[in-house]
Specification:
It is built from seven helices and four strands. It is mostly helical.
Amino acid sequence: MGPCGPECYDSDGDTLPDGWESKGLCSWDPSRLGVNPLNGSDAFENPDGDGYDINHDGVLDLNESFVNYLEYHLRGDLFLANQTLDGQTLPNGFSTNLFDHISDYGAPEATFAERASGAVTSGQSTYSIGASDPLSADSDDDGMPDGWEIWFARWDLLDDEWTLNPLDSSDRWDDTDEDGMTNWKSTTLSPQSYQRQTLNAHLLNGLSLQLAKHMHSNNGLVLRLRNLLEVS
């Protein structure tokens, strides 16, 4: 397929703008293998190899991969299986499970891109603001892979914020599961351990908030419930 002219936004019809695929260059750089504005089949390739091995079988399947299509459209969408959260069907029969748990604590009120840090977006062109980097497994350079952050990210209703965001490096120093270990250090934990600790922390915060509202005089019960969850 050849270029379609200066008026063409997406020469190969893969929904990925030419400028994003070429990184604004007038000609395609061979070092950007896997992201080519004249190759319409690369939308579901994964040149940086990121994602999350959800079933822990040692193989990154397509539904576990943070493919180019997701990397770019992260700038405006969230996903669930074969649709966006707004109900738009993904092309080519594609389906993803990376975002399966983002709504576990409540329906998201913002996309990852809307809460991206300026350090990530400041160097991006207008057509790519809020997209992740298809050639870097860690777009915000915080030491936590994009796929890991998305799989463990939750929208926190209490804080009105993402617990993890692949477009915000400041979450590196947060302690989402309140175990005294930063999120960055938590990448060394087993997936089951991190998920359990994060859930317990959220339950603790939620119970404390609700019980405090309705049981001002019964702080002892709040403390006992907190202690019980911490032991578990």
